[in-house]
């Protein structure tokens, strides 16, 4: 087995004391970030990228640190869902439905332990899925030319805009804004400055990390200022009880976890869907299949296991298109892509052939991180519960200042800090107006690659546009892109209405 | 109303964007597509989204009351002032003041906020500068 020997090499890369230490730190920080309401995985990873970058960590350790944060945040989101009925991050929304009722029944400890195990099952098997599916996708991707890549980028925008957005027109605006920002700077092919307004600072373009940290972290701080509630949510009085799940409960939910893992993984692999959809679909299907006694929503353990296995499996699944094609499937993987680009690693088929140690080291680190997370999250969950009690009035200023430190560390330029604040304000306004931020980020990240591939394709065909749909693969991708953008118009309404009901219910 | 403003702003932005993209100087050597076409295309996409939003706006979002809005403006002013203060007064002093002010506006009492500001600044300095060796802004006093 070629794959297994690659994986063994990956473990050889990942199993150094430094990498294990970084994985542990990443898992710990990630769980905290996931658990704190308002500081989701995208924010957490976004703030840490410039830091990991300026600390001068080599590629593999930096990747291990940040993917551990990513997986950790997926685990952590459930804690405040279960204890406080406040989802720590968006994918954990569905966990509130049965997790909080379990807390009210005095089963908080069981719910935390069960969801920890479910998260582990989802993430662990999804990582195996990644091991086997990514190389297959790489083989397909090796057939891609510039025209196919251009179509693929369009597909990413179409599905992200179609599924993630409530309003297609706003997704269009978001993507165009992001792409527009990416165009600023010297044109790579002809060397002429574009849209720089003669400002030398803009000749290199706007660094995507500045935009990302501004859009996510700074806008989050501004959003918090809207509500003067800087107190920590009241978690103190909840009795945790023993934090173990009885074996009978695990046995009863085993089938649920298995189903949800598969569903979550598939929704994660689909571009644009990500972990939120994974947990939503897993919960809905489980309810459809098993809710004969109407126990879902009243603290049914299966209702806790399903969304947690689902969202963690989707987090693993979302790494498949990101690593194999270089096209992220969700907001957080878009941020992870930014990190790879900051480290000068271009994900995609070439990464697997040219730098296999990076890919397989990363995958091995995911396995290690998972086991660490299970160990951290089941016996030591009470530590994280205490972190939840840090009031936001002290937390948010620290987040803002760490963002400044990270961006300042990139170049030592205060001009960059001003640009970051501009993006923060823009991010705040866009969020209020319901314009999704993920297509903006994706546009900033992929804009230059997208243009480069389009221009390369047209150079090959000497300006003949028909090369863009000149191969069966390209036609297939275009059809998927159109479907991805239009289909949610038809049946996406259903999903959204359901979600709105869920949000309105508590 | 908000969406109509968004739509019209984006429309103006799109037209300006297309205009400036067309101003891009092109040298003698260029590929068939050239450096202008893609930005112009982006402008067109932006304009399409903008017109649709202008004509079919979503329900009004919940904007904060004027007072809260003032808080946000204040926070932005603090952050901008912070970037200018960094090279003048160094990292620790600027950060203490900025973090303290933000913490105060998020609801901490004046004394608690001051302590929090200094605490955050010193903690970041110790962790990132002394332990991890990151370069932070250096003021006249070297910290």
What would you note in describing this structure?
- The complex is a heterodimer of chains A (506) and B (143).
- Helices cover 74% and strands 1% of the residues of chain A.
- In chain A, strand 1 (185-186) and strand 2 (193-194) form a beta hairpin.
- Chain A is globular, with a radius of gyration of 22 Å.
- In chain A, helix 3 packs antiparallel against helix 4 (59-84) and helix 7 packs antiparallel against helix 19 (438-460).
- With 506 residues, chain A is mainly alpha-helical.
- Chain A has helices at residues 2-14, 17-35, 41-54, 59-84, 95-104, 108-141, 146-164, 168-183, 208-225, 247-269, 274-290, 301-325, 331-342, 349-354, 356-377, 381-387, 392-411, 414-432, 438-460, 472-504; strands spanning 185-186, 193-194.
- The N and C termini of chain A lie far apart (50 Å).
- Chain B is mostly helical and 143 residues long.
- Chain B folds into 2 domains: 1-63; 65-143, no CATH class.
- Chain B is built from 5 helices and no strands.
- Chain B has helices spanning 2-22, 37-55, 66-89, 91-105, 110-131.
- The longest helix of chain B is centred in the middle third of the chain and has 24 residues, at 66-89.
- Chain B is flat.
- The interface between A and B is large, with 69 and 71 residues.
């Amino acid at each position: 087995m070629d794959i297994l020997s690659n994986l063994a090499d990956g473990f050889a890369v990942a199993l150094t004391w430094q990498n294990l230490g970084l994985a542990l730190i990443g898992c710990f920080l990630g769980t905290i970030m996931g658990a704190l309401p308002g500081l989701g995985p995208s924010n957490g990873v976004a703030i840490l990228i410039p830091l990991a970058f300026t600390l001068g960590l080599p590629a593999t350790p930096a990747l291990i640190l940040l993917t551990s944060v990513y997986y950790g945040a997926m685990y952590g989101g459930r804690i405040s869902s279960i204890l406080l009925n406040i989802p720590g991050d968006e994918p954990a929304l569905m966990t509130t439905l049965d997790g909080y009722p379990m807390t009210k029944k005095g089963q908080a400890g069981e719910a935390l332990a069960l969801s920890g195990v479910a998260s582990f099952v989802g993430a662990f098997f999804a990582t195996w899925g990644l091991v086997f599916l990514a190389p297959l996708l790489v083989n397909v991707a090796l057939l891609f030319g510039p025209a196919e890549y251009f179509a693929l980028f369009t597909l990413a925008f179409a599905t992200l805009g179609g599924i993630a957005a409530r309003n297609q027109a706003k997704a269009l605006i978001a993507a165009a804004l992001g792409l527009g920002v990416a165009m600023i700077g010297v044109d790579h092919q002809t060397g002429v400055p574009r849209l720089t307004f003669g400002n030398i600072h803009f000749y290199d373009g706007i660094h995507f990390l500045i935009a990302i940290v501004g859009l996510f972290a700074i806008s989050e701080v501004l959003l918090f200022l809207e509500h003067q509630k800087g107190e920590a949510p009241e978690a103190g009085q909840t009795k945790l009880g023993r934090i173990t799940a009885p074996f009978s409960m695990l046995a009863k939910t085993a089938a649920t976890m298995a189903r949800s893992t598969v569903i979550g993984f598939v929704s994660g692999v689909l571009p644009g869907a990500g972990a939120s959809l994974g947990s939503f679909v897993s919960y809905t299907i489980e309810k459809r299949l098993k809710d004969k006694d109407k126990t879902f929503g009243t603290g049914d353990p299966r209702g806790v296991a399903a969304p947690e296995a689902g969202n963690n499996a989707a987090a693993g699944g979302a790494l498949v298109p990101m690593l194999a094609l270089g096209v992220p499937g969700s907001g957080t993987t878009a941020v992870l892509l930014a990190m790879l680009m900051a480290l000068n690693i271009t994900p995609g088929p070439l990464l697997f052939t040219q730098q296999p140690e990076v890919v397989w080291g990363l995958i091995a680190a995911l396995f290690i991180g998972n086991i660490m997370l299970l160990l951290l999250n089941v016996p030591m969950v009470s530590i994280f519960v205490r972190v939840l009690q840090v009031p936001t009035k002290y937390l948010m200023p620290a987040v803002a200042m760490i963002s400044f430190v990270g961006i300042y560390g990139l170049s030592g330029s205060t001009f960059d800090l001003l640009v970051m604040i501009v993006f923060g304000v823009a991010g705040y306004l866009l969020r209020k107006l319901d314009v999704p931020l993920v297509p903006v980020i994706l546009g900033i990240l992929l804009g230059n690659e997208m243009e480069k591939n389009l221009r390369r394709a047209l150079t090959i065909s000497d300006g003949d546009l028909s090369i863009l749909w000149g191969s069966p693969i390209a036609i297939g991708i275009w059809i998927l892109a159109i479907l991805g953008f239009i289909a949610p118009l038809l049946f996406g309404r259903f999903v959204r209405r359901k979600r709105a009901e869920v949000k309105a219910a508590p | 109303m908000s969406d109509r403003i968004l739509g019209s702003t984006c429309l103006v932005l799109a037209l300006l964007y297309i205009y400036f993209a067309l101003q891009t100087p092109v040298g003698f050597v260029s590929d068939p597509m050239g450096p202008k076409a893609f930005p112009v295309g982006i402008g067109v996409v932006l304009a399409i989204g903008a017109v649709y939003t202008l004509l079919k706006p979503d329900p009004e979002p919940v904007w904060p009351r004027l007072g809260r809005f003032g808080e946000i403006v204040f926070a932005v002013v603090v952050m901008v002032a912070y970037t200018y203060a960094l090279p003048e007064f160094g990292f620790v002093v600027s950060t203490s003041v900025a973090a303290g002010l933000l913490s105060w506006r998020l609801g901490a009492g004046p004394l608690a906020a001051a302590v929090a500001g200094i605490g955050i600044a010193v903690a970041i300095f110790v962790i990132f500068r002394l332990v991890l060796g990151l370069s932070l802004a250096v003021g006249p006093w070297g910290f």
